[in-house]
Design goal:
The complex is a heterodimer of chains A (262) and B (272).
Chain A lengths: L1 E9 L5 E10 L4 E5 L6 H8 L7 E6 L2 E2 L5 H8 L2 E4 L11 H6 L8 H5 L5 H13 L15 H13 L5 E5 L7 H18 L2 E5 L3 H7 L2 E6 L2 E6 L6 H8 L20
Parallel strand pairs in A: 3-8, 3-9, 6-7, 7-8
Antiparallel strand pairs in A: 1-2, 1-4, 4-5, 9-10
Helix pairs in contact in A: 6-7
Chain B lengths: L6 H4 L13 H20 L5 H16 L10 H32 L7 H16 L2 H12 L3 H25 L3 H8 L5 H35 L7 H10 L3 H28 L2
Classes of the chains: A alpha/beta (262), B mainly alpha (272).
Chain lengths: 262, 272
Amino acid sequence: MLKIEKLVKTYKTGDKALKAVDMEVPRGQVVSLIGPSGAGKSTLIRCINRLVEPTSGKVWLGDVEISGLNAGALRRERRRMGMIFQEYALIERLTVMENVLSGRLGYVGFWRSFLRRYPQSDVNEAFRLLDRVGLLEMADKRADELSGGQRQRVGICRALIQNPALLLVDEPTASLDPKTSRQIMRLITELCAERKLAAIVNIHDVALAQMFVQRVIGLRFGAIEFDGLPTALTPEVLTAIYGEEDWQATIRKDGESGELSV
Amino acid sequence: MRKPDTLSDRIDRPWRKPPLIKSLWLRWALAIGAAAYLAAAVFSIEVNWLRVYEGLDRGAEFITSFARLDFVSRAGDIWSGMLESIIMTVTASVVGIAISIPIGLGAASNIAPLPIYLICRGVIAVSRALQEIIVAILLVAIFGFGPLAGFLTLSFATIGFLSKLLAEDIESMDKAQAEAIRATGSKWLQWINYGVQPQVIPRLVGLGMYRIDINFRESAVLGLVGAGGIGATLNTAFDRYEFDTAAAILVVIIGIVMALEYLSGVIRARVQ
């Protein structure tokens, strides 16, 4: 469904963030992307929806080549790629509902969005999603009144209302406590399963990744170092990705009940 | 001097914050230079003490005239001048702010393409380089005496002030919020409306109120060069040595400025 071919990104400063990355993600698969800071994880997902312009290489979403689109066509394709951000990136001074509905901006005209007169079907869907993540009664609150976990759930609604085929998720749990982190990861993976969405999830927490995803890709210095099942993450593999360290405490052991009852 | 780097070099020695200017001689040269300049500046002011002494009477007369404010004998002139100033202020602020918003967007380096950025920064630089009085003298020469010249002057000055500060606020906005809106596939105007505008609105409202305040005060000065408004009335009162009327006009100006100050405080507290 998503195909990346020889993707290269060299920043103006000369930093080689990505060195010819190849990967493929089938429909409905949730992949987590791990690797040290600066390995190119954020750059990789931003090159997919071209918030960062790749230097060379190709990206296909279905049978559309994203990397060759002009500005208008790129905007239309971005609707099919929902994005969830580190630290939520909600518009702080807008209401929860406005934040969710902003996911429809690619579908509605300027005046409709300017006057906040969204089609009833969009409004219904926004309420359904807010209800699904348990925030229905927060709809008219301002986004900056919410807690971290609540904000990220609004961010998830904003991405899902785009009706995407792919979710790009950048460090969704970076500033959340361990329990909320698990709730958010569970919500994302559940929603992906319900809607048959593919997702790429950048994440620092290796154990958390192992707990929730079907496939892990390890990135180091802009190149893929590991691609396999979460159970295949051995101390040797982690050393190859991150460098030498004692990994016993980081890896989730088999038989351990990883899920907190929440 | 050897740089102490091991713990035994540093322990039991006093610690001081490193000086702002590292080089010792540069530090002293700057201090002595500044003192010498200050002394030279003070001694080079020529003061005609005899003239000051003669002027004290008039100064005292002016100050005591605040005790006998005369709103009545020129009430018609004060009223019409004040009305003209207020109209000038409101129209110039509305027009100036309306023009400042697109120029401010264009002058923000993080959202505008380079050619547009340079043009908008150029407009701002021209507007800021020309002081209000100079612009007013020029516009009075073109459009004749009266409030039209004042209105145009204030609109022009508002553009330089507001666009620059708005652009700087946009440049320091949170990138992630704007990026999130871009990722939804929004069009440019939608991106500005959702991703940028909510972040800069409180500052824009605050600056707009402040500019209305400035425009009113300026309108009192612009009258002195013939650009209409309460300044013209004030000028006439001084020319006729009607200090009690002049004092009354100043009191009205002070009152309005204070009212605007209070109003802007209330509005800014509400828009957060």
